[in-house]
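User: Predict the complex with adenosine monophosphate.
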Amino acid sequence: MSVLVVGSMAFDSIETPHGRVDRVLGGSAAYFALAASVFAPVRIVGVVGEDFPDEHLTALSRSGVDLEGLQRNAGKTFFWHGRYHEDLNVRDTLEVQLNVLLDFVPRLPAGYEDTEYVFLGNMHPAAQLEVLSQLEQPRLVACDTMDHWIHETPGELRKVLERVETVVINDSEARMLSGHDNVVRAARVILKMGPRTVLIKRGEYGVFQFSDSSSFVVPAYPLEEVLDPTGAGDSFAGAFMGCLAADGVAGDDGLRRAIVHGNVTASFTVEDFGPRRLMALDRGEVDERYRRFVELTRFHG
Ligand code: AMP
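Assistant: Here is the predicted structure with adenosine monophosphate placed in the model:
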């Protein structure tokens, strides 16, 4: 079963205490697609500019990503420049150039409308609604968002939340969206806005899953060295959705397996700058780390 992601394609310049890279492949759709493609076929709907190099497209295609829905528009590709603090959970955005993303209207190619697993990456909620209107009967739609849309377009964002099954956001966004500092309370309030499941990403502290009937808590995979956390959240979402698409949604156990696969896959992303580690990742490595994670968290209560 294929997974469809609609989101940003970018050039990223990234600075962390461990080094920097300039204008590497980035964007929520790129990280999501590379991670999801470890588990299932992936379709991207997004936009790049005339300056986007073919080598990035080749790298994505080699990973099994279908690029038919990628528009190449006149102008420059979206650009993001971020700098991380010593505490890698904190980053500053130094520059954003929306460029071709500013006028992006997502259009699903013929044959994409019946995709069953769909991820609406961080973008204008009006664009997320536009995608929803083009889908036939998706089995599972998840969405992300960010502080900007929570503040600037709350009405449209609410409409998206009423229509998605799952929301995947980080803890500061969950606080902002709900108006509650406590993450458990925040999740309860967000559940009332429509989604059946809320996944809250907490950086090095892992992931919380909340729904009305069950909750699940997963620590991040412990690493000795994290070089660059960029894209960890999108990689988590990609592997999570890819895993669900590959295995079929199968109750709480299937959901938990997908969450742990997302968590483990994201742990590879942060081991190198940009999407470099993710591009070289294979299923065997994920499976091995998954088994290790099960060992690390197992106990007899
Ligand atoms: P993450 O680290 O998972 O939050 O995702 C980082 C990615 O989000 C980077 O590759 C950026 O290019 C992308 N990004 C940053 N700001 C925006 C934005 N305003 N809209 C869309 N994508 C963005």
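The longest helix spans residues 251-269.
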